[in-house]
Amino acid sequence: xxxxxxxxxxxxxxxxxxxxxxxxxxxxxxxxxxxxxxxxxxxxxxxxxxxxxxxxxxxxxxxxxxxxxxxxxxxxxxxxxxxxxxxxxxxxxxxxxxxxxxxxxxxxxxxxxxxxxxxxxxxxxxxxxxxxxxxxxxxxxxxxxxxxxxxxxxxxxxxxxxxxxxxxxxxxxxxxxxxxxxxxxxxxxxxxxxxxxxxxxxxxxxxxxxxxxxxxxxxxxxxxxxxxxxxxxxxxxxxxxxxxxxxxxxxxxxxxxxxxxxxxxxxxxxxxxxxxxxxxxxxxxxxxxxxxxxxxxxxxxxxxxxxxxxxxxxxxxxxxxxxxxxxxxxxxxxxxxxxxxxxxxxxxxxxxxxxxxxxxxxxxxxxxxxxxxxxxxxxxxxxxxxxxxxx
Length: 391
Hints:
Elements: E1 5-10, H1 16-26, E2 30-35, H2 44-58, E3 62-66, H3 75-79, E4 85-90, H4 93-103, E5 109-112, H5 115-124, E6 128-130, E7 149-153, H6 159-170, E8 175-177, H7 189-197, E9 199-204, H8 231-237, E10 241-245, H9 248-253, E11 260-262, H10 265-276, H11 279-296, H12 299-311, H13 325-336, H14 345-349, H15 352-358, H16 364-387
Parallel strand pairs: 1-2, 1-3, 3-4, 4-5, 5-6, 7-8, 7-9, 9-10, 10-11
Helix pairs in contact: 8-11, 13-15, 13-16
């Protein structure tokens, strides 16, 4: 029997992250991918037309949508894509769940990087499964590498994270910091894997990195969330121990003691000091942690559950009472603004047909507000984006 074909619709190229997701699907499907930023000269309906033609021509059965921080790929976009099975993939659901959980209603299955996120979807009735975005490739002769780095940190270097790292260094912990900010670029993926494999411990800091947690339906309230991070799995895949700042996703995925966690920089120092001063303790902790990661996250084995779910004939559908006003506003704006400028304003106006369809079940007040705002957006942005095109 010929393998089914899958198409992954990514927002834009993102190095190994996109490749890792693609490779996981390739274990079971003939998998292709496209980048939506390559459709920059197409409006909303033209983009959908091109994708549907591709699906028809290549006889694609399954489409996976990369949705995080890209409001163009919304409930209405996914609804208009013609295929047998639709899947939403999210890696940053911690602050996008309000929006993603509505977008997911156009899909059959939800895949999330975070085990806590999976439970939140299941709570609503969705079929949801964990799919991490980490690279499971190991470097050659890994066991022969000298472990000359005590503690390695990599990732975005926020003020809070820098404060913890500076404290550890001041207390005498040998920390190699390859964190990056807007000015300092990070190391290559290949160099990063090599540095991880040469380390004794990877330090994972889990607070979200923005100045506040986004909220679509209310004012921002929280400064940060404790996020489940992929560097925990990256460490385990490469035979290295990891200790982590607390995150609830860790407690769901790992048993007590399999990943040592802390809340404060003082607790972090105490754990690192204890592990680094006792080679036998560190060896036992590392072995147990690595075994757990490699047994649970074997790429082909872990995807088998997802494959079986995709191949089911029926999927449980969640019924929404309505699409909320804030979601309609966002969707309408991003439908009308796609590739808009003065030279194609008339074509943009024809996108109102999609927006009228969106609003058919809304009351007259909501219709008036959304259509008025959308018309103003069309007029203003057609001028503004002609004068200063979006990068």
